[in-house]
């Protein structure tokens, strides 16, 4: 950690700050300049809250040099994490996860039909929303517990592990047989929920918040991991920008950046990012080429009659085409990176 | 609601869409153009999900004409709402709320000292965090239930109603004697929490999310109101932009926009918005001049030793100066708008 | 164009607006609702300025249905444009342009060495900056006319057509032998410059501005095209967002969106977008998979001693690896889209 | 300047970097940590290009401690600059500038009428566009030289100094009798233009670009000042964010931040920032309360028939009301800051 102070600061004020830091078991080193002095802080700076340093009024700026996340940090865990969903289905370090299914579970017939279609087309997991976060209280809120039951039926029928979103820690008991619990973008910083999920032993698919930085995503992963659960899958799903041609702006650079900073697997959601079915294929292909460990794609048997997010859902036959495209790009990507 | 379709669309496809709309009890009217036709939809369009309309593949664009919020909408409730916190302390329609206190409650001595100081300087409510949402799991997370108890002590000592943040619906019983429950920016779209708060009868101070639009803020207010609780106070606290000179960008235009769209009172938080104590005064003054119904300001007895957010906290004597400035600007604003 | 007015507006005020529109040779159609009426405007609405419509105080909202760009619009020119740089080097509709070279031209030796290296690795055009837009007046501003001369030497030595940036219309005569004139992000809305470039017959590579929408990029292309020059190549180079892990956020969704809205070729600049050499390869691969018609990549013989933008420059041997990767992804992309 | 390197870097590589820095006449100091070492660079670091430092591959991060702007920097010029427009009309350090007038000059009658109205209401300068930057080539582009002539007529008629926008350095001779030359948001980084304006002796009103940071605005001011012209007035006019309720998001925090970093006067443009006439009054009042040294406001005799930006223009009687409000808030602000 680097602290910048005015070079004309009274020595006793500098001493106050230095003592405060050293009482936390860290060392300091001062470099003097014409206008500013620099205090270098050495040691485990995750013990220091940047904000507290800033509140010393002699401080002009503070910069953290080491990232404040540890368990998610590649520096301390150089090898890629492989998240094991089932003994057959893994994700990370060369294991590619293709997650597909409807935005919302609507009926037994629908979810089983979609599950069979996406399985036939190459999906390795089934997604489907039972608890749905909707901007408007007047929109369809999901089938809830009933939806989870139908998902489990679809799992039984197809063998596909299931991925579904949780919206409150109170619902955890209902998720006992779910294979991967998804934390949606709006709950990425619902820290109470993250801590509870950290007590489970189940893979957690953690979506990046609409306006969260890559480092904040890793800090949220750290909440889960520091509570004991290391099975975290990160998900880039588009960030909010001024551009309105797509629903959000898919930040594919996040894929190599996350791989550099962290050992956790990274999947991409081109459906929510673009909000438009016809952009899903090119962005899915691009995500694979950027190095993603998996994709999560919305597929619906009858998009115009979907109860949510129909505009971004592929029909099963479109998904089959995307799946084929993904395989081609994956093969080329592996060769290009060999 | 306006739906744009290509003018070369086959009539039977247009009929499908029109029938789907009319089955929901709405009327349609088509205007034909050279390249595009326009379907005007008349009636209670909050029953229609924009996304479902977009999933008809003949649809090029959809634009909602009426806002999808109703209870928060000034169109249907033209008069300003006055939220009554206690019989003496009200907010909205000329009642100004000055909420002040530390980011976190740290000790009985601290909270009572700050409460007395801010009361003496003109504050009408006391804020203080007991449950603290922190980006890092390694930072101080608040005194929790103990913090709430200390806040109630400070209320007893000073008579100031208290405002404090909730992070999970499970904690609601602990908030029984709290006067105003705050929903933080990170939970603005924690819909499960909003629905539970909608069942209470207590004022809710709802902060705008970091990257949420003004309309989404109103939709979240709608969640609370449509569950039965009409005592909602809206709070602008800065949005995330590319500018890094301040922690967030305080969007003061939101004040007149919210007053135009909604009848709910609007307060501004210049402390979290800027993140820098020396910018709090000018932005507090600007907020009042823009028409805000109140302010929420961080005050700490000893900012450099605050357990959170010290960098943005005012000392009690600085707060007294800000309070005096606010009074002057309020008087001028009232005269300017007379 | 759709105009929303309050349903309680006095008829004579509505008539004023309708007459104003119809005097411009357009037709109108009114749909009545409970709270709002909708005026549909039919005809060539590019003649109407949205802002003027909004200034009628009865108007609540205006939405353009047809895009205001025409010559760049795929609706009126359904076939892909192929920009012919030289008889051998084309871009668009299956012709891929691989543009590489240093950020700045520094010396004859340097530019010829880089030109030979990138040509050997598969580049089809040479880029190099002679006039450099720099945020600080104290940074290196380019070799200017001398730099253009050196670029022409490199063209003579290698046969590669050259692409270089212009910063002022006054410099146009110096660009006579340049093959493609680049308009940088900061000048995307330097309309005086665009109009002058529209009088030339030379391909223009138009970069998207840091905070410009896709539609504004197309309106800037329209400035060039409506002045007579149809040889426009669009370039996505990252937009400004709150994320700081990369210099800008590369918006690859812009590639399919631009291809849908326009017939012009689209290239991607992963070097400026990320600002980090080690992210160039994955983002170049992703750009190709998203459907880009070309790439523009910075290559320098000795990045640490580059006079500008060394941090994002590849060494020649790294570029050769990227070029090989791009070929593999291109082949897979063509097959995936077949 | 602080440079972070990995603590395991080979000493000879560190030496390369250190020698490179010291050859530029600067000193270095190394602080060693567990994972990272910190090189402190002391001296005039504006001679070093951050980008070049980053291109040494051992460098993990670089942070500038001193700002790279000098002439605009309050550190080196602690006293407020007062820009003298005419002997009677000054701006900065307590001199408030109220600039008003139409977006575009349309006719002699119009500009003289507006000039007289705004003068009567308290304006100290007249604004009016002759050269208009428009997103669409099909929109009205201004009366150009003829417009400048009409502005000078209005100046003669009223005595108000005039402020008008320049779009190209080639037009400078036409601006001889203009009192303040405005550089619009889109040209904030048109560096060729800035350098030419730096050779004049006339006040320059420099608007912040749509997506430019406060520091970039100051670097652009530095371009003008380092070319010899110190009469720069900074202007905040809204930045581009995801919020669409207003045209841009007015960043009023920029006012205190700019006053802290620089000695130059700061004015605010609430008309372009909001794009909506009815939000101009509250935002003008807020700007004054935040400490602005002036305002620039659009006023038109007949907004619905304005040739540009009618939606944000006030009628003369509305401007008179805003002017009265501003006076009240100014008085209160001065008292509050006393």
Automatic annotation (TrEMBL), chains A, B, C, D:
GO MF entry, a single one: transferase activity
SUPFAM superfamilies: Aldolase
Transmembrane segments: none
Protein name (record): Phospho-2-dehydro-3-deoxyheptonate aldolase
Top-rank taxon: Bacteria
Pfam families associated with the record: DAHP_snth_FXD, DAHP_synth_1
Cited NCBIfam families: DAHP_synth_Bsub, PRK08673.1, PRK12595.1
Domain DAHP synthase ferredoxin-like: 1-67
One GO term (biological process): aromatic amino acid family biosynthetic process
Domain DAHP synthetase I/KDSA: 82-322
Matching InterPro entries: Aldolase_TIM (IPR013785), Class-I_DAHP_synthase (IPR052899), DAHP1/KDSA (IPR006218), DAHP_snth_FXD (IPR041071), DAHP_syn_2 (IPR006268)
Record key words, sorted: Transferase
Keyword Transmembrane: no
